[in-house]
Amino acid sequence: MSQLLPVLLLSLFVILFGSALLFLASRIGAKGKPNSVKEETYECGIPAETSGPTKIPIKFYLTAILFILFDIEIIFMYPWALTYGDFISGGYGIYIFSAMAFFIAVFIFGLFWEVKSKALEWE
Amino acid sequence: MLWDAIGFYGMALFLIFFALKTITVPNPIHAALYLVLTMIGLAGMFFNLGAHFIAGVQMIVYAGAVMVLFVMVLMLFDLKAEIRSFSRGLLSGALKIMSSALLVGFALGSAGSSVAILDSSDTAPTQIDVTRQLGVLLYTKYLFAFEVLGILLLVVAVGVVAVSRMKGGTHAQH
Amino acid sequence: MGTDAFEFTINFVKMVAIFLMMVQIVPLLVWVERRGSAYIQNRFGPNRVGPLGLTQLLADAVKFLTKEEFVPGRGYPFIYYAAPVVAMIPATLALAAIPLSAPFHVEPFEMFGRNWGPYTFMFQGYDFGIGIVFVLGVSSLAAYALLLAGYGSNNKYSMYGALRASAQTISYELAMGLSIVGVILLFNTFSFTDIVNAQSAPLNFMWFGKKVVVEWLPNWGLIYQPLGAVILFAAMFAEANRLPFDLPEAEGELVAGYHTEYAGFKFNMFFIGEYGHMFVASALMVIFYFGGYTIYPWLTPETAPQIMGKLLGVTSATWMSFWGSILLHLVLMAKVVAFLWIFIQVRWTLPRFRYDQLMDLGWRSMLPWALFNTVITAIVVLLMRYQWGA
Amino acid sequence: MPSTETILNVGLTHYLALSAVIFSFGMIAVLMRKNVIVMLMGVELMLNAVNLSFIAFAKESGNLSGHIMVFFVMTIAAAEAGVGLALAVAIYKKFHEVNIRFFEHLRG
Fold it and tell me: Which residues contact C42 (CB under 8 A, 6 or more apart)?
């Protein structure tokens, strides 16, 4: 637990600093009169028709899902890269390379398929 | 030891509070944000238990990827807070709560009795090379599972694209 | 955080110093950016307040503080206020995990009638031994500040900006993570300190099982990983939402992206986060590819204390070590500043991408190239280190 | 009532108890919430509770297989979340509904 203390401390500093500034700004800042037009959603000058966001292109989510899948494959390469040297000096270089070569081949095939199927296309 | 205990209980309270918030707040986006905090807390717990690399993976995969996807999808849906966010039915509700309570009881009971079986030993893996050992283990003993997971991820990627392409899917051709 | 009062105090002071550094980077960088852009565009830039316009930033801070407080009527006030604070956290936590100089040693000494020491203090907030994974994990949280800002202001431009920004950040995170695999393959460690130490030697590598040493070149990662360095640097631009990847705040289409509804100090806090990301990115580039805080033949963790000892005339081992670390810290800062200047120069030179071009670049050219880099590195490392004779 | 010694000496039991509590929270979310996406979050919560117990056991027994299992569980969980959300988004896009009750009326 004591190892994590500095991380907590630093986050606490940032949060305190941020909230102190927000508080200070709300105290010192000019006091405007509340006004229904001012608090309206910003629409470049035209009257806001709907409240908040309406139609947002849903293709963002496909990008996010593919990101997760590829991200995990990349994470799997981290321990591999860390132990690669040890395996080679232990005489198992070919073994560890081919173990990963298969995985990377699957990765490349997946990426190739995604590109081919135009799942990554933005018009 | 006292400080360890204080740290553990502080973190455990943090976790339980945010997990409880996750399942009770009516607005799904707020639930997702509380779940992010729960995930970060769990990463801290993993770290505390000596699983440094796993804690990092928890941050990258869960807090940084899966939960971003949840928040993004909820923002796309633009859901407002639900007035009745829990399912109805007095009897079934009571039954569900009771079964959950029973589960907690069983789990806590078995956890309590585990002290007798697994007494606190000092055979914890040495801190320095846990990640290296993990790598060696992953690419020797668990090599098959690892390769199969690679294929599983490929299948999921193809499946996700197929689901979004199918009739009525999100990317269906009009 | 420490075993006794002295160590605890020093570590606490260190944390405060890192935090202050993070906060102070911004005014300085904003000044450099404004003067630099003016220089590039043949203007003067801020030059009225103070010498060279240096106190312009103080004036800006006062202006920020006296701005009218404003919450969009249909927004979610708590989330709206939380977003700028959250924006500062990832960069600060990542910065604290990066070693900014060699550790310095304190010999045993006597104070307040008891004996203290010996100690070794890192020039970084914390070292968990999984440095790279920690930095990646923490900086993957950066997407939340954008999403919170977009959701909290409840405005369609903000929402679009937030979605674009987070989709862009996560897309380039892939190329970034993959290009770092090459570095780990090379040095076989997650620890930044080990990577820097490996680079403070003459160029040495295995050539089909035989060791080759080139005395006149430093052992910098750039020599082994030029492609990885380029990919990482480009991905860093996208991570920090800087031009040419600043689509989230493309004025022509989205007003100001996710900070459309933000003003005053809240807006400034997003900037602290952005410049913090720039700083962390530059520090990572320097540590992975440019020898970190060392310059091989002259300045290494071994030689720096001697040089400073001669220069300042101090003989105590503690102070020599301390000043040596400070010297190495200045070396790191000089390299980092060079990279920060590239960030600024690029911003005022290149035009912006279109959004589809940006996603294309991330997924269809940088990711495959990063993959190619990983495979080639793995093959070359295998061929070179394989025991051919045995 | 457990003794002070048991309370202060944080060990495997404490982590298992915490894991059990979080698991049951996830279960309650799956059983009682109506929103499909919140139910998916409940599943994530349950998987994470299991991960916590894996890591606690790994530390207690000095065996790193627990870490590897957690790694695998995370992979599966992410894949599951991806597919689950893809289906939820596809249904939402068509019917503008995420209520689990509504899903009962879907016909091929």
Answer: none
Test the A interface: residue of D40, D59, D85 with most A CBs within 10 Å: D85
Measured distance CA(C359)–CA(C168) in Å, rounded = 7
Report ipTM (2 d.p.): 0.90
Tell me the C-alpha distance between C208 and C309, whole Å.
Answer: 42
Contact B62, D74 (CB under 8 A): yes
Angstrom CA distances, D49 to C145, C158, C285, D43, stand at 27, 35, 37, 10
8 Å CB contact of D98 and B79: yes
Domain boundaries, chain D: 4-103
CA C20 to chain B, closest CA, distance in angstroms equals 25
Contacts of D70 in chain B (CB under 8 A): 46, 51, 54
pLDDT at residue C168, as a whole number: 84
Cis peptide, bond prior to residue C72, ω within 30 of zero: no
Alpha-carbon B18 to chain mean position: 13
Give the integer Cα–Cα distance in Å for D89 and D98: 9
Tens of pLDDT, residue by residue over B26-78, are 888 889 999 999 999 999 999 888 888 999 999 999 988 899 888 888 887 76
CA C333 from centroid of its chain's CA atoms:
11
Write out pLDDT tens, residues C217-240. 888 888 888 999 999 999 988 888
Ordered structural domains, chain B, with CATH:
1-80 (1.20.120.1200)
Q: What is the pLDDT of residue A55?
A: 56
**Band of residue C373 on the pLDDT scale cut at 50, 70, 90:** very high
Provide the CATH topology of domain D4-103. Answer: Helix Hairpins (1.10.287)
The model carries a pTM of 0.89
**Residue C204: strand pairing partners:** C213
Map tokens 């927004």 to a residue.
C75
pLDDT tens digits along A49-76: 555 445 556 677 788 888 899 999 999 9
Which of these, B66, B69, B41, B68, lies nearest to B55 by C-alpha position?
A: B41
